[in-house]
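re the bet — no i am not wrong, look at it urself. input seq straight from the record:
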Amino acid sequence: MSATPLERAKNVWQSIFAGGPYTSLRMLQYILETGKMTPEEFLKIPDLRAKSTGFTAKIIENQDIDTMAIAWQSDTGRCTSFAVKAVYTLSQEKDGDNLIYDFCIYDLGGHRIARCRNTGIVIDSSSRLKGGAFELKEGDWAIFDETSSKWKYSQSKSMFERDRVNPGKTPKSSATPITAAAAMQICFGEVVAGAWRSVPTLFRTVTPEGIATFYGMVSWTFQDRAIEMVPVLTNKKNKFVIQWAQQILGSNGQPTAVLDKTMVGTREDLEHCIATLTQFIVDYGGPDRNGPKQWAADGIGNFSAHLFEAATKLWGNPTLKEAKEAKKEKQ
């Protein structure tokens, strides 16, 4: 017996979710390569919106969907590449001579999803329902016990509320579908705007029961010159931190051009940081060495290593701040 449209959509959803981590590292690498920026140049001024970087977001805005395939056809990505990849995969499916799916992509205020006009099936990377994909007929809010989010499709308007435990928030909504290219351009724009703050990598997989599961997180926080490693996402304050030296503050409270050499580590500190990061990915990246596999996806581990090397060249050897609670959990 052939799979139903929903079963097929669930299979594709789970394959994408388990295929790689949530991260924009590959997108950041693509942005830097397209803008002809080296890792060192980016680290010096990580805010890509700053005029002094010489970077212009129009380089990305002018890309078509095929050129941007390096992002959405990859194993890593964000909600947008997730939806676009699923849509392109499922849109090829036919029942005889007829296409099964006809997806529309919606921008719901910083979050992109896709809904099929033929079947009512929704592709949303934030879904925690068994199998991921689900049917959403036109009508009332759909609320599921397995998730804190809710969805609605009414009068040709797609609506989404990420956290229904906080009443009073206005749900994100859109009645206007956008193209896959427009969705990716919005996503790239968000990476350009936010990379200076942090670029997290969340390791994830799908259980044999079809439940989407997240594990640890490795996050570059470029504005702080650091890498944060969070073992358990529900306790983000408990973390390991690889820290590079900051600039000495002047009398006006602003950073000077002088590096605080008291924050520069030794060669042993450097080796300890590298070893800790490597072991963290093994210990907190999920079962069956899921972490190392996902860290290797799309070469994001190699790109991170280039950033690490460039940061050390600019600011000296980093030091490590241990997470005491994480050490206890591991024991």
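see?? The chain has a mean pLDDT of 88. told u. also The longest helix spans residues 267-284. so pay up
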